[in-house]
């Protein structure tokens, strides 16, 4: 009887942390979109700082080698991909201008935030260039 009880107690002690871990969620559903955006921004800033630190730690030879790799990659990029990158830059600039225009309208009170979001979504759907590498199976995007 004592062995059965000790065996059950040991199993229970081993199972409790696993059960608690399964119930725990890594994301808090109560976080707002703004909090999530701030977390993503902090993560992006941390990645940027880490990249700057890595670059600062590079020797001049390593920097030159990295520069040569970037130049080689750019020179061997397919024409369609070069055009896509150019179109994407233009699209992003247009999106920034459109967002600034819509933000000004929201501040002026002529449209609501929901209308702004819908307008930006429509702009993205209408103007986003398609990536040629995404249409070709088995090719990597840059």
Explain this structure.
It contains 6 helices and no strands. It has helices at residues 2-23, 33-56, 60-75, 79-108, 113-127, 132-135. The protein is mainly α.
Instruction: Please write the string of helix (H) and strand (E) elements.
Output: HHHHHH
Report how far apart the termini are.
66 Å
Number of helices: 6
User: Regions with pLDDT < 50 over 5+ consecutive residues?
Assistant: none
* CA-atom Rg in angstroms: 26 Å
Mean pLDDT: 85
SS strand fraction:
under 5%
| Envelope shape | extended
How many extended strands?
A: 0
Structural class of the helix and strand makeup?
mainly alpha
The proportion of residues forming helix, as a percent range, comes to: over 70%
The biggest beta sheet reads: none
SSE order and pairing:
Layout: H1 2-23, H2 33-56, H3 60-75, H4 79-108, H5 113-127, H6 132-135
Keywords summarizing the entry:
single chain; 142 residues; mainly alpha; 78% helix
Question: How would you sum up this structure in a few lines?
Answer:
This protein is an all-alpha fold and 142 residues long. The protein has helices at 2-23, 33-56, 60-75, 79-108, 113-127, 132-135.
């Amino acid at each position: 009887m004592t062995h059965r009880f000790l065996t059950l107690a040991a199993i229970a002690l081993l199972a409790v942390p696993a059960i608690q871990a399964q119930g725990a969620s890594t994301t808090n559903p109560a976080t707002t979109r703004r909090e999530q955006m701030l977390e993503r921004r902090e993560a992006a800033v941390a990645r940027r700082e880490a990249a700057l630190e890595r670059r600062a730690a590079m020797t001049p030879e390593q920097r030159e080698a990295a520069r040569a790799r970037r130049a080689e990659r750019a020179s061997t990029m397919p024409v369609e991909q070069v055009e896509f990158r150019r179109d994407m830059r233009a699209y992003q600039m247009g999106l920034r201008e459109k967002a600034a225009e819509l933000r000004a309208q929201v501040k002026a009170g002529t449209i609501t935030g929901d209308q702004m979001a819908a307008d930006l979504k429509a702009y993205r759907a209408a103007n986003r260039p398609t990536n040629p590498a995404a249409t070709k199976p088995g090719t990597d995007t840059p």
